[in-house]
Design goal:
The complex is a heterodimer of chains A (340) and B (497). With 340 residues, chain A is of the alpha/beta class. Chain A contains 11 helices and 10 strands. In chain B, strands 1-2 form a two-stranded antiparallel ribbon. Classes of the chains: A alpha/beta (340), B mainly alpha (497).
Chain lengths: 340, 497
């Protein structure tokens, strides 16, 4: 998709929220009680977790990580039920049709927020659902092959893209209005270049496209390509954060290359229906937040670079994150002419 | 060889490892045979428990399950026209007609032998050159090449099972149309969803295939019974002879090659391997009109290729960390649970684990051969059940299978709608295999075409001038023109349905 858009003023709320999150995370860990009485015996049987994506991707992995964390913290069993399709909409709407009794919970990502903002979904993730915990917030990077000969850093990559007159390609997983496409469009617009964004909905073909030289670059989150980074096949040339994270000291941040917009983050979390009984919701909030702080979940998050940004958001924090992200999407969609 | 023996030694070093090996083997055979609850169901159920096993045992379970589950679905496809999984659908095209002719033993025997042979060959190739093959596959086969491979396959699809060429093409085009239901692969726009969120993900293969094969078959047989033309399948346990296999040696070799090749390509996998292999069997046959009516080569092509694809699918997974399908994607999760990242480093950091996988898959394919022949003697007795008892059982199994796929009632409705559609298509000479081929190939064809055109900035010349693309497109167009020429000249024999 070729784009040339004018972008509005950057939104700063997310940055402030990110900066304040670390002490909140530590405080919350200390304030959570070690045990909590089961309300009326709930749950008397294993819970079901609807996961609106396939088992092999980031959502399937974080779902299994949290299921183990909740099990370690509370002994509660949760069965994952994968319902992929429609960029997460099939699972989301299936969840809303399930009984609101607390026995069914939902995993979802920022796609639920962007879908509501653009009008593809009528389910507001912070109003029609109650966030139990946001457990992963991650940034994106742009990768090239480590043995690429046409360019080897951000400056030479931009120069190459310019020279191609719109024919340079980048792989991502991007529908119109998605986090990936909006971020990439803003980068392209800033540098006055046009890039062919090619969407691969499965990780395997997406990474194969870069590895095999079918595309020039890849837009992805670092945890998903960790194997390629460690093997030396892929090399990050830009981190979409204001500052270089410690894990990527040699990769320039967006500020260093002159980008001033607030990047949209990928976030994954767990929800329950707003009509679920209040005492059960409170118990689930405790169980999932305890699950986040277990050793097994912390180890899992670290293996995915999810410790670089404080990922923890309790219910109130998640609502702030969702609503601020929603505002950014709405503003962006208006500028793109996708909504009124 | 030394590494292989070390892997085999690890495999048999503890009773638990041997137990897990057989759990994967038998689990795959059972779950593969029951429609709707495929090997993926068992794989998903087992996933939380795999964290409690050692890394070699956990990975071995999934490797063995992949081999046996791919074969397991062939039995019900042949006996009852119910493919256990989409990759077994082409097996039913000729396997079930063979059952009706009293050749079920021959068809299942061929499926067992070919599954084991195809799987073993691919494991051997995998052991010999995994990193090299993976690199070649991703370097030379991008979306444009995969699209042209799909086009090459579709070009021959019209000649399978239809009464005339034109009805064959209409069937394929209807399949391609059905493949467009859901979100489009470029902009994510909704198409033919009628505001039903169930349709956002498109029509799922499993209920459609169950409808086309199982429900339609019950309707056809019920009609025959009502009109007094029903013949109960004969109970014969004759297995295929060595001479019959030797006659099909080129078909087997071609199917191994095609299956292996399809398996290496990330995102392609066993289903497309089976369909493409079946199409090539039709293309190269001297008697293409016999396909769809009980041709042994149809079963051979499908089952050899889908099992050859299993070993091959492990190549991009192990060498590059690229899963080719749902089961290999789950295996990435299993690797990560044990702090192992599949990819180039796995050969350096965990080579013992890799060779356990190779050894487990090798022995799984050998075990399929033994267990398959033992199992065949037993399952053939199912054919003795009278139709009036068998039909409700088939419908019940199919209904459970359709619902279990996504726990959606609409999938049951889709299955019955597809069954009624297929019943009338068969009565009027249209091709059920054609529509299934269109549906399966259409989804991946559209996506790779869109990606390919974006890659070349919508420059058609740049797209078609890629050497592999050009060769496959020319071959496909030649096939279409030849069949049209034959139809116009009246040399294409009509096929009675």
């Amino acid at each position: 998709m070729k784009t040339s858009l004018k972008w509005g003023a950057p939104v700063v709320g997310l940055v402030a929220a990110m900066a304040l999150a670390l002490p909140v995370q530590a405080d919350k860990h200390g304030s959570l009680p070690d045990t909590m009485a089961k309300p009326g015996g709930f749950p008397e049987r294993p819970l079901t977790m609807i996961v609106p994506y396939g088992p092999g991707g980031g959502s399937g992995q974080v779902a299994r990580g949290m299921i183990q964390g909740v099990k370690d913290a509370t002994g509660i069993d949760i069965t994952p039920d994968y319902k992929p399709g429609g960029s997460g909409m099939v699972g989301l709407k299936t969840y809303m049709a399930a009984p609101a009794d607390g026995y069914t919970v939902l995993e979802h990502i920022d796609d639920a927020t962007s879908a509501f903002a653009i009008g593809k979904s009528n389910i507001h993730p912070a109003e029609d659902l109650i966030p139990l915990v946001i457990s992963q917030i991650t940034f994106s990077q742009i990768y090239i092959r480590a043995n690429e000969t046409r360019f080897n850093d951000w400056a030479s990559y931009v120069a190459y893209v310019k020279s191609q007159g719109g024919k340079s390609t980048i792989a991502n997983v991007a529908g119109e209005g998605s986090m990936e496409r909006i971020n990439m469009n803003r980068i392209a617009d800033h540098f006055g270049v046009k890039v062919q964004q090619i969407s691969f909905d499965k990780g395997g073909p997406r990474y194969a496209a870069l590895k095999g030289g079918q595309v020039d670059a890849l837009f992805e989150q670092p945890g998903d390509v960790r194997g390629f980074l460690e093997s030396g096949d892929f090399k990050p040339i830009l981190t979409l954060l204001k500052e270089r994270p410690p894990a990527f000291p040699d990769t320039p941040s967006m500020t260093e290359v002159g980008l001033t917009f607030t990047p949209l983050m990928r976030f994954r979390g767990f929800y329950v229906h707003k009509n679920a009984p209040a005492d059960r919701v409170k118990y689930l909030q405790w169980a999932f937040q305890k699950g986040f702080f277990t050793d097994s979940y912390q180890k899992f998050n670290k293996s995915k670079f999810m410790d670089l940004i404080p990922s923890f958001r309790d219910t109130d924090g998640a609502r702030v994150l969702i609503n601020e992200t929603m505002d950014i999407y709405r503003q962006t969609y208006k500028e793109m002419g996708l909504i009124q | 060889m030394e590494l292989f023996l070390e892997g085999a030694a690890t495999l048999v070093s503890s009773p638990l490892s041997i137990f897990i090996f057989f759990c994967g083997l038998v689990g795959g055979l059972l779950f593969g045979a029951i429609p709707g609850v495929s090997m993926l169901t068992l794989a998903a159920i087992f996933l939380p428990f795999s964290g409690f096993l050692s890394a070699p045992d956990a990975i071995m379970f999934y490797s063995v399950l992949y081999c046996s589950g791919t074969y397991g679905g062939a039995v019900t496809a042949i006996l009852f026209n119910i493919p256990g999984a989409p990759e077994n659908a082409p097996t039913a095209f000729d396997g079930y007609p063979m059952t009706q002719k009293g050749l079920a033993g021959k068809a299942i025997g061929a499926a067992v032998l070919c599954s084991a042979f195809g799987g073993t060959c691919s494991v051997i190739f995998m052991m010999l050159a995994t990193p090299l093959l993976a690199d070649i596959a991703v370097t030379h086969f991008g979306p444009p090449e995969i699209f042209s491979l799909v086009f090459f396959g579709i070009a021959v699809a019209s000649s399978v099972g239809a009464k005339t060429l034109w009805k064959g093409w209409l069937s394929v085009l209807l399949g391609l149309l059905l493949a467009t239901v859901g979100l489009d692969p470029v902009a994510g726009e909704e198409r033919y969803t009628f505001d039903l969120y169930y349709l956002l993900a498109g029509l799922h293969f499993v209920p459609v295939i169950l409808g086309f094969f199982a429900v339609a078959e019950v309707l056809v047989q019920a009609e025959r019974r009502a009109t007094g033309s029903y013949d109960m399948p004969k109970f014969v346990t004759s297995f295929p002879s060595l001479a019959e296999f030797l006659k099909l040696k080129f078909a087997v070799a071609r199917s191994v090659g095609l299956g292996f090749f399809s398996g290496i390509l990330p995102g392609i996998g066993a289903t497309l391997a089976a369909f493409l292999s079946y199409n090539e069997a039709v293309r190269w046959s001297k008697t293409p009109e016999n396909f769809g009516k009980g041709e042994l080569e149809g079963v051979v092509a499908s089952e050899t290729a889908n099992n050859a694809a299993t070993g091959a699918a492990m190549i991009p997974l192990l060498a590059l960390g690229l899963p080719g399908g749902a089961l290999t994607a789950m295996m990435v999760g299993v690797f990560q649970m044990h702090d192992i990242e599949p990819g180039p480093l796995v050969f350096t950091n965990s080579s013992d684990l890799v060779w356990v996988v190779f050894a487990a898959m090798f022995f799984a394919n050998i075990a399929i051969l033994v267990l398959g022949f033992v199992e065949t003697k037993g399952v053939l007795h199912l054919l003795r059940i009278p139709f009036q008892y068998l039909a409700p059982g088939i419908l019940l199994m199919a209904t459970i299978g359709a619902y279990a796929t996504r726990s959606q009632v609409i999938d049951v409705a889709v299955m019955f709608a597809a069954g009624i559609l297929a019943y009338f298509m068969r009565r009027t000479g249209y091709s059920v295999p054609g529509i299934v081929l269109g549906l399966i190939l259409g989804k991946i064809g559209e996506q790779t075409f869109a990606q390919g055109m974006q890659m070349v900035s919508y420059d058609t010349y740049a797209f078609v001038s890629r050497p592999i693309v050009a060769i496959l497109l020319i071959a496909g167009i030649s096939t279409i023109l030849t069949s049209v020429y034959r139809a116009l000249k009246g040399t294409r024999r009509d096929i009675e349905i």
